[in-house]
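Below is just one:
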Amino acid sequence: MFIRVKKSKNSPKRSVQIVASYRNEKNQPRQRIVRHMGTAFTEEDVTRLKDLAEFEKAKLEAEITPALFKPEQLAEAAIEARKKIDDEPINVNLKDIKEQARITTGIHEVFGSIYDELGFNNLFDKRKEAARRNLRHITMARLANPVSKRNSVQDLSKDFGISLSLDSVYRMMDGITDDIINKAQNHAHKAAKGLLGDEISLLFYDCTTLYFESFTEDELKKNGYSKDMKFNQPQVVLGLLSTSEGLPVGYEVFPGNQYEGHTLHTVIPKIKEKYNLKRVIFTADSAMLSKANLDYLEEQKVEYIVAARLKSLTDQWKAKITESVAPLRSFDYGKNRRLIVTYSDKLAKKNKHDRDEAIRKLREKLEKSSNPKSLISNYGYKKFMRVTGEVNCEINEEKYAQAAKFDGLHGVITNVKDMDDSAVVEHYKQLWLIEECFRISKHDLKIRPIYHWTPKRIKAHILICFIALTCARNLAYRVRLRFEAMSVARMVNALNHVQLSILWDKKSECKYVLPSKINEDARKLYKTVNLSADTTPYKM
């Protein structure tokens, strides 16, 4: 087999195909398309599709076929019978037919295929089959409808024909060791390398906080600075590593009172030792910016692109970067570092709108408040206030004017030498992909609040969410290359509507399966993982 890029005669589009060579009955050489990977219009898209094609070709050559998910009881029998559909007509009297069950299969078939392919089905030892089964099912439930473990067990029984006991799920979580967590991250990293042609040179890192429905601290749950404004509740800090395509490769969990800038001393050695990458350009937001952190990265011989806190620079630097407005300017920042400052009209309008909106709300508060001094505790307002007496507050117009000088400006600091200013900025802009990972984790997968109390179960819960995130991002990356971009919510919605109705003929006592009509999004997702989406009724 080989990969072919076929050009179109009258347009710039090119098709990427996996092609097999063979000889016909007359021993003449022939070729056939084994798999059409997608259509590209740019060189970058062609490269990505070729990487995906190499990934698929390797599986085909090794005769690796992702196993279909086989739910228990009726669901297992129904899906197993789907493989043996024949052309024999089904003769039934509809008056004798009764629906026995309706089972959602799309999530388990498509995401289950990704889960197995990435190796997550082998995290537990073969002797712990129940734990393997429970981890797989609870991950699928997290993707389909992220709720508590108790409600997930109920959903699996009600919607998927899968019977689990809550106690067995908790036993599985208690059996998740650090070795299993490391193994899962290794699988995620290997999957990302496979999809990206074995080349990962740019890693993004960011932290977020996960709070608990609890007010009790321990060695992991600690009160700290909360990004969810839950300052009175214990939390943990989650640091996530992602490729520039938004594919997760690893994570670390820190105590809730850990300053995220200090997490680098754990993450950088892990990047160097565990991932064995030829070159890493570490990219992070301004929370990682400190003299100590930059010095540490350089000591470790790590290249970086980090957002700069322009308003926190010295007065001399602030005067330099605000003296003129240009789309892109670069400054020598000393120690072989560059400070690159960009300007955007769109960002300037947003900055002004946000500040004016804060001022408007502040004026309303000042007019209504009987004790204006109480507003000083509000960080969003206090930077524009001056206390002139016991309870007299007024807008600090000088501070307002100073803040306006930075409208539209954004800066990054880098030590990368062989990349021009524009390329550095473009690389940094991709940081939104890891922020999107956090949005998916928090909103689509609802990783927080966490309802578990022991460190072992907290880590197990985060692992389940990480596996679900990896499956979701992996599928999203593939479907974008082959068809179009789909959000996680859109993929899940499409697959939750792929169902089977199991019908019972009370006269013949036979069971039949009637697949639901499949929507176009689901059809594309099935095709992306090379599964059939046949809707032909069949006999069990």
About this structure: The first strand starts at residue 2 and ends at 7. Residues 73-103+490-539 form one domain. Confidence is low (pLDDT under 50) at residues 64-72.
